Amino acid sequence: MSIQPLCTNDSRAVRTRPRRRLVLAATLTLVLAIPGTANSFTLDQLLDMPIEQLLKLEITSMHLPQVPARRPPSPNAPRAAEHRDAT
Amino acid sequence: MPRSARLPTWCLGLALTAFATVAVSDDLPEYRLKAAFLYNFALFTEWPADIGATLNLCVYGRDPFGEEIDALQGKPVGARRMAVHRVTTVEGLTVCQIVFIAAPSADGIARVLSTLRGATVLTIADTPGAVQQGVALNMTVEKNKITFEANLTAARAANLKLSSKLLSLATEVLP
Lengths: 87, 175
What we know:
The complex is a heterodimer.
Chain A: H1 4-37, H2 43-47, H3 51-54, H4 77-86
Chain B: H1 3-24, H2 30-43, E1 45-46, E2 54-60, E3 76-77, E4 80-87, E5 98-101, H3 109-116, E6 122-125, H4 130-133, E7 137-142, E8 145-151, H5 152-157, E9 161-162, H6 164-169, E10 172-174
Parallel strand pairs in B: 2-4, 2-5, 5-6, 6-7, 8-10
Antiparallel strand pairs in B: 1-9, 3-4, 7-8
């Protein structure tokens, strides 16, 4: 019986331990990530939801309206601005 | 483990962390959700029989939806199918059964309503004060959630009936 194979196995075990840890970490990361993707809805998915559920969903990114070119002020302009401020 | 061998391990770890960060982040843009509401508004409206087999949804003014709203193309609304149009002139609104007046065109609400007076058109906006101006349904964002208000007089004037379920979910219903 030779000692050589045992030594080889031991050194292989030492070498594969960090790799195993990495695989475990990667699997854990993926498992944690998968439920997160369920929060990202496509429009098709939203269309299948009841309206009560849509009312509960939170927007993650607000649309920034593009400011139109400057125009001469209209008579209702101050009133519209007041409404915007109110919200 | 030799130091040189650790580098790929770290890189892989960083890549996985980056992937996880992207994957767990929610993604629900404002106008994707608003497009879903538009579809629901159409579903919860009683349409007269004589309007034909197509419900033309027109986005008036600068289109805030982008390609998102094209997913509504051909969607069933009862026995009808939805068709999406982008309209930039009030004259072009005559073919529409649903008109969404985009926020940048909000100063044009009065013009749109005057053009559509008496027509069977469900008017929808997302501008504060729009229902008071005579728009049938108006969406607002409160604490990152969509809410909506309804104007029954405006709906009735357009020969449309909004379902009681829809009205029960509105934050405000103008009689």
